Amino acid sequence: MKILLTGATGYIGKRLLPSLIEHGHQVVCCVRDKNRFNPPASYHKNIDIIEVDFLKAETLDKIPNDIDGAYYLMHSMSSSTDYQSLEELSAKNFKSVVELTKCKHVIYLSGIINESELSKHLASRKMVENELSTGSYHLTTLRAGIIIGSGSASFEIIRDLVEKLPMMVTPKWLNTKCQPIGVQDVITYLSKTIFNEQTYDQNFDIGGPDVLSYKEMLLGYAKVRGLKRAIFTLPVMTPKLSSYWLYFVTSTSYKLAIALVNSMKVEVVCRDQRINEILQLKTISYEEALKKTLHKVVSNDVVSSWKDSLVSGRFDHSLSEHLEVPTYGCFIDRRSAAYEDLQSCKSKIWSIGGNKGWYYANWLWKLRGFIDKLSGGVGLRRGRTNPEDINIGDSVDFWRVLYSDKQEGRLLLFAEMKLPGEAWLEFKISGKKLLQTATFRPKGLWGRIYWYSVLPFHGAIFNGMLLNLSKK
User: Fold this and answer.
1) Is this prediction's pTM over 0.90?
2) pLDDT tens readout for residues 231-246
3) Cα distance between residue 314 and residue 323, in whole Å
4) Of 23, 101, 211, 411, which is least packed with CB atoms within 10 Å of its CB?
């Protein structure tokens, strides 16, 4: 069957794609920027890649009319304060274009909705479901709560909190009940539901076997990791204070922290799990999901991460718009050094950031990340998904990867920290030398003041980093 996969570069989409291929489907992958999509070469005969934006109806004529089924995996929770209107427009455009095809089944992954008063986030998901349900195809909505998997926002927040804080004074919403589910179980539900007529025109709650409070989830992680943790809840922490608490302690963005806090005040427990009988499925426990996830993290086998989503930083458009580094009106720091060993040099460059750091004065990089976090930026806590590989679109601390070709020997990064301007950092192998170029395009007077205020540090930091990268 021919399947339309939206959100192909997203957290779930990246994991669903190999499952669909394994089941023998031909998959049409919808991406906003082809530069960010790097599927393995073995997938190429089973996929077609189209560049579309469901917020722009004029781009949707690329969608083929011979698709048999489709997955709607698009969400705009943290990309804008007005994400509800964006999600409504996206759903309407999707419905309009899919109705022109021969598609008979659409699957939408949503959130569990079981209270009359919903958070803004869950209300938006419900609105999308209502819109999609009016199409000429059959719709199946799978509603999930907290998803536990390597690279998921929920897991990363749990890990950050427990690993960093021996004692926590937390908001009262940590007593809210939820029903977590392992990410592999989510993928199984999605792949087995497509074209199953028993699921047509219905919605189902999907979750693991455990109903836990968020506090119990934190303590459950501590148990698996062999850590002793004390958690105390206070009734006086407002949603805004709670959002700041999540933002500063974890790697989440502030917009995502607000959306999560508002959702975490709402109980998300499955009404029933009759879908398990239809699909003949048995989900794994929260503890088992944690163990599987931690194994993936330790073995560096993280398939996808929410941190690589463009909404985790400053981007809400194509990366290619920043691919050409400007020179006019810019401050440029160019340096070069002869490298001692080509493979060693490349290995260091493609391992930069994250746990490896920046090869010189890491405490200054950490200080800059802390200042960025205080000013509402992303800081350094995003790290990187893989310690050795870098793909276009990945996040590396407070940078976004615009271009990455290890064989060519060129890596181009764009700064997502809070700046009075725009900044690029490029590493390039040229002949026997490593070229390192930092470019800053200031915005107004404050941009120029910023550049000259940090100029004294640049000489030491950039020179030290270059020399250490070029050494064997």
Assistant:
1) no
2) 888 776 666 676 776 7
3) 15
4) 23
Whether 385 and 308 have beta carbons less than 8 Å apart is answered as: yes
Q: Of the candidates 263, 230, 260, which has an alpha carbon nearest to the alpha carbon of residue 245?
A: 260
Please report, as a single letter, which amino acid is at residue 223.
K
Q: Are strands 433-442 and 395-396 parallel, antiparallel or unpaired?
A: unpaired
d(CA 157, CA 114): 24
How far apart, in Å, are the Cα atoms of 105 and each of 18, 197, 247, 415?
20, 9, 39, 41
DSSP 348-385: HHTT-BGGGBTSS-HHHHHHHHHHHHHTTS--STT--S
Q: Are 396 and 251 in contact (CB under 8 A)?
A: no
422-456 pLDDT, tens digit per residue, is 999 999 999 999 999 999 999 989 999 999 998 88
β pairing state of 26-31 and 47-51: parallel
Tell me: the pLDDT tens digits for 379-407? Answer: 777 778 777 788 888 888 889 888 899 99
CA dist., res. 313 & res. 418, Å (int) = 10
Distance CA 81, CA 144 (A): 23
The span from the CA of 110 to the CA of 139, in Å, is 12
What pLDDT does residue 327 have? Answer: 86
Residue whose structure tokens are 């998901």: 125
Distance between terminal CA atoms of the chain?
A: 51
